[in-house]
């Protein structure tokens, strides 16, 4: 037995989709939303789970909460099989779905929290302590008496995160926690999550389309596409994957010139006297810089590494 808090071994989820193909005809089609995924997450990790639309992220999270039953494989969270013991697991995990709320729409925030307290049978002292910490750290004091429907998206999200933490979960799943939030709200949510992990050791698994969430929170990232794990490792390793790709030499010339002709590189963009030359990321930039400097009137130059967005975009594109 490993001491992983979350473990998946060859987990699959297949949906049967019926599609109308004619007036009377329907076609059955199988969608492999999750297609044999294995990974382990240790206590205290903050892991980003990313991938394009329809990759299988939400389906994975739903299996980890017990909402969906896997079609195959083995899955455990805190030693519990989520689909079999969903209620027991509910006391150990917190879940936040960015796209919808677990709060009661017409009730003031604090009444929702009171209901949560009863649902999870949270002892009074612990409830008070957790609520006070969340109110303080998420700046909720002025919002407690406001009905949820009157909260802004950012306020509601903070309210939802607090709701997910009142029962001291060991694991927090967040599905797109910063979606639609303004820059300030995003920063606040990220800061809170970082602090939560540092102070309480809460394990966090988060799906997002915002790579800044990953950069600012996660030491480890998993990339899923077509239901399969394409990458599992340090964020820095994603940059390294870009080595199969290209870097860019940005050249500032003394004057506008036709696209430069240099061996081992090609001009991909020209803007006035500035030109961008792409070259294989694994090659040294030195010979290229020397060749450009020898032949053209140079003012300045810089080398740009492929950024994570590019690397990931290429990973996705490579699978077509
Ligand atoms: N209940 C369902 N019935 C049938 N197909 C489903 C169901 N839920 C998800 N799917 C399909 O499974 C695949 C994976 O969907 P999932 O929602 O897990 O992706 P995702 O990575 O979370 O995408 P997004 O980033 O768009 O939220 C998609 O092809 C989706 O259409």
UniProtKB/TrEMBL annotation:
<dbReference type="InterPro" id="IPR027417">
    <property type="entry name" value="P-loop_NTPase"/>
</dbReference>
<dbReference type="GO" id="GO:0005524">
    <property type="term" value="F:ATP binding"/>
</dbReference>
<dbReference type="InterPro" id="IPR003439">
    <property type="entry name" value="ABC_transporter-like_ATP-bd"/>
</dbReference>
<dbReference type="InterPro" id="IPR003593">
    <property type="entry name" value="AAA+_ATPase"/>
</dbReference>
<keyword id="KW-0547">Nucleotide-binding</keyword>
<protein>
    <submittedName>
        <fullName>ATP-binding cassette domain-containing protein</fullName>
    </submittedName>
</protein>
<dbReference type="InterPro" id="IPR050763">
    <property type="entry name" value="ABC_transporter_ATP-binding"/>
</dbReference>
<keyword id="KW-0813">Transport</keyword>
<keyword id="KW-0067">ATP-binding</keyword>
<dbReference type="Pfam" id="PF00005">
    <property type="entry name" value="ABC_tran"/>
</dbReference>
<keyword id="KW-0046">Antibiotic resistance</keyword>
<feature type="domain" description="ABC transporter">
    <location>
        <begin position="18"/>
        <end position="251"/>
    </location>
</feature>
């Amino acid at each position: 037995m490993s001491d992983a808090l979350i473990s998946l071994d060859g987990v699959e989820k297949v949906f049967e989709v019926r599609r109308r193909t004619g007036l009377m005809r329907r076609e059955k089609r199988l969608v492999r939303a999750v297609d044999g995924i294995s990974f382990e997450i240790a206590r205290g990790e903050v892991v980003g789970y990313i991938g394009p639309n329809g990759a299988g992220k939400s389906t994975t999270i739903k299996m980890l909460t017990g909402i969906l039953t896997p079609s195959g494989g083995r899955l455990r969270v805190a030693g519990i099989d989520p689909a079999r013991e969903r209620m027991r697991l509910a006391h150990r995990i917190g879940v936040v779905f960015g796209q919808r709320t677990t709060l009661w729409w017409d009730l003031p925030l604090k009444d929702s929290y009171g209901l949560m307290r009863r649902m999870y049978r949270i002892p009074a002292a612990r409830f008070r302590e957790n609520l006070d910490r969340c109110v303080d750290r998420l700046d909720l004091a002025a919002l407690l008496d406001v009905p949820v429907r009157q909260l802004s998206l950012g306020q509601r999200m903070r309210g939802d995160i607090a709701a997910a933490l009142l029962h001291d979960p060991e694991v927090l799943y967040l599905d797109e926690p910063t979606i639609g939030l303004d820059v300030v709200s995003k920063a606040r949510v990220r800061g809170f999550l970082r602090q939560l992990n540092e102070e309480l050791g809460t394990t966090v698994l988060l799906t997002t389309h915002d790579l800044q969430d990953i950069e600012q929170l996660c030491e480890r990232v998993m990339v899923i596409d077509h239901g399969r794990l394409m990458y599992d490792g340090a964020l820095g390793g994603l940059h390294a994957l870009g080595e199969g790709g290209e870097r860019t030499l940005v050249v500032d010339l003394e004057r506008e010139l036709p696209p430069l002709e240099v061996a081992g590189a090609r001009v991909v963009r020209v803007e006035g006297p500035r030109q961008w030359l792409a070259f294989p990321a694994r090659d040294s930039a030195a010979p290229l810089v020397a060749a450009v400097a020898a032949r053209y009137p140079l003012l300045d130059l810089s080398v740009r590494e492929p950024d994570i967005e590019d690397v990931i975009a290429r990973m996705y594109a490579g699978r077509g």
